[in-house]
Amino acid sequence: MATPQRLIAIDMSKLKINHYEDKSKLKIDHYESRDFKIHSLPVFKMLNLVENDFPFGMRFFVRDSKLYMVGGEKPRPGASPKLLPLERSVGHNESFGDGGLSPYVYILDLTGQDSTTDLDLLKHHTSMLAAKPTPIVVEIEGKIYVLSGTPLQLDCLLPTPTFEVYDPLIEQWKPLDQPLFYRECWSDSQKFDVIDHSVFGTTIYVLTFNLMNDIYHYYSYNVNDGNWRFLGESEDKLPVPYHFTPMCTGKFVPRDKGIYIFFHEDIPHAALIPSNDKSRTRYQALNEVDGALYLRQVASYSGLVVELGEHEMCIMQPGSVQPKEENLYPCRIILYMATFKVEKLLDSSSSAQDRGLKPLSTVDASDVSHTSHHDYDVQDIRAPFLSITCLSKGFYYLYEWGPEASYICSAFFHQLIWT
Questions:
Q1: Which has the higher per-residue pLDDT, 414 or 141?
Q2: Is residue 371 classed as helix, strand or coil in its secondary structure?
Q3: Which phi and psi angles does 288 have, rounded to 5°?
Q4: How far apart are alpha carbons 14 and 90 in whole angstroms?
Q5: What is the pTM of this model?
């Protein structure tokens, strides 16, 4: 699990099913109820990247058993870790990279037994054409696309190109067209914050926030024609099924690419993607592994979905808990985590309508490019199409997180093989 400052390795074999009967406000120390015990997350290694002279706010992805760490910002020497997540509160080490912004890509080979315990194995692999703070990193058809995000500690123009692509086969970077949201406000790069993104087919969708007008804007970039497009201010206009829009993070089940596990409004769901254009996408709430953070008054943040195996998945959702005496103790970081096995039911290939059952809510994925209607609730249908077997679930303290905000940049599963 990667945060802006740390890599945290979790021993998945020590996770178990924790049962909670108390639905009242989650409490820690002064504020912990006897019926709601929170365990420590079984962390067997924590690598503090910033303390070991690596950039803050790198983004991560895994490819061919290698962990890539991209971009980020290098804080000034001696900067307090507590201040790093706060905008323009620390300043840069201007002798590093491009005035403190990192153009570097580091790589960690995950095939060795010491790969998660030895920072000396983390090597500088390549350099982008320009530095990229808090970048968006996606892989499409074997190529890596990297887009600059909003720098936390710098209030000036972003280095160009702000968008580029890397071809691992020839180990070469290529600049791409400037995004519209940066091109339109090039006199002031701080007018737009890049909030989130998603990928559907060969198209990248980006959600930005206009700081001058307090308006959200949607943009798209198609890797085939190389064009940026402005899609408007509402997700209703996006030509993409809802579960693939920005702010809906998810992953396909490896063994069955027709099943997509994702978060909708902090609740895990599954989508059954139709194999033809005449069927509707079906949804099922994963009640078996839902942490129901809202019942315990936990301030939650965007969750992540991780592939564990052919049929096994993991959901992770960080959050923070306010003490009962609000000024007595600081907020404490917690993590809800669940692992589960996904199995398609025998009759799930037929639609609910074919069996005479009326869905509570469905989306016509085949018509989504011809309609602006995204105004619907993702809810459970009357007949589920998946069997969910919970393998572990629970709330965990995250002492190793340290003073930073509870934000997960990325998470991946790597199985160590001991000889």
A1: 141
A2: coil
A3: -65, -25
A4: 38
A5: 0.82
How far apart, in Å, are the Cα atoms of 133 and each of 148, 149, 268, 387? Answer: 6, 6, 30, 41
Give CA–CA dist 222/322, Å, rounded. 43
Tens of pLDDT, residues 389-413: 999 998 888 766 666 666 788 888 8
Residue with tokens 């943040």: 301
- Residues 6 or more apart from 56 whose CB is under 8 A from it? 4, 5, 49, 50, 72, 73, 74, 75, 84, 152
Strand pairing report for 332-344 and 386-397: antiparallel
From CA 343, how far away is CA 278, in angstroms rounded? 24
In sequence order, what DSSP letters do the residues of 144-212 get, joined into one string?
A: EEEE----SS--SPPPS-SEEEEETTTTEEEE-PPPHHHHTTTT-GGGEEEEEEEEETTEEEEEEEETT
What is the tens place of the pLDDT at every residue in 329-377?
A: 456 777 889 999 999 986 655 444 443 333 333 333 333 333 333 444 5
* Residue with tokens 């997180």, as numbered in its chain: 401
Give residue 316's identity as a one-letter amino acid code: M
Task: Look at the block and give the residue holding tokens 């090039």.
Answer: 186
Measure Cα distances from 385 to 268, 347, 380 in Å: 15, 7, 10
φ, ψ for residue 71, nearest 5 deg: 65, -145
pLDDT tens, 77-123?
A: 887 777 776 666 677 888 888 888 999 999 888 776 665 555 556 67
Bridge partners (DSSP) listed for residue 144: 139, 166
Q: How many angstroms separate the CA atoms of 57 and 49, rounded?
A: 10
Per-position DSSP letters for 14-28, written without gaps between them: G--BPP----S----
